[in-house]
Amino acid sequence: MTEIYKIVDTTLREGEQTPGVQFSLEDKKQIVDSLAQIGVHEVELGIASHLSSCLPQLIAYASSTYPELNCSLWSRCREEDIRYAASLGTRRISLSIPVSDRHIVTKMEKDRIWVEKYMLDGIHLALSLGMAVAVGFEDSSRADIRFLQHMSSQAEKAGAWRVRLADTVGILSPGKTAKLVASLAEVLKKAEIGVHTHNDFGMATGNAIAAFENGAAWADGAILGLGERTGCARLEELVAYLSFACEQPGFNVRELKTLANFVADIANEPVESRHPILGEAIFACETGLHLQGLLKDPQTYEPYSPELVGAERKLMIGAKSGRSAIRLQLNRLGIELADDDMDKWVLAVRDAARAKGRALSDAELIALCR
User: Fold this and answer.
1) What pTM did the predictor assign?
2) 361 DSSP assignment
3) Which of 267, 301, 319 is the last residue of a domain?
4) So what's the pLDDT on residue 342?
């Protein structure tokens, strides 16, 4: 591939907005360490506010330890917040502004004219303080498309290098995401497009990939998909998909599991056994047809090798296994059975597995067949 898609990790900003989740300074440092090893292109360290815990120390640590790592702060367009970000030595700031009438009128009690001026004043101030400015449009998925295009164009003209579309309530589908991103690509000349997708209908990662495929250069992700409500796109899924399916270089995928387990302990959210990329059972198989293929060539039913994510292939003989799979597994265990006996042994294996309510271990299989 020639296109390089870029990831903003937002575990320390969006992820910490998960109810009940709070990271200490040492936690945050360790998360930054892992993210630097994984190879994300930008780390959102938090929110530009005096109320954000340990922000000065975290920025100092990240800039001194990883001077080449792009770090940013999320910020409202408030002058106070922008100046605070600059005082901390922030090099990259992401200004957030609502663009849907629901947010502009109902939440902020303002109008479109006010919002545009508020955004432009924020961009000009941040630029004057020496920061690179990205602009994030809150509730883009429910905004009037012409107003969204206008705001994007104005942000670019004012000096914003990236425009980020936020699907704040997670109502986009991959098809709708594609159209939304394409509509911005029509009006932007230099500014890069990013997306921040939420997972309310389980499509956050799919929407992020759809955005990449239709003109976006950036997508946000958080480890384990942490965030408000059902969270946002999962960092582990984005990194693994770009690395394996798109063959994009530069990622250390194995580090994802280390980071995920660390964050899962803090968040008290154990990684489920079939969690994509991270789960312990994602390469377990019992179905006869699949087992037959896997035993002959793992690529028949695996999108990537288990070793790439620190996982193990578990070929399980049980109630759903067939003749070929059972024969191959028995042969691997040094047991040869006559063709005439196979139907009998298949039934015996399936009955034994049903009785135990699980697949049989190698020892149980050997004992049964002998």
Assistant:
1) 0.90
2) P
3) 267
4) 79
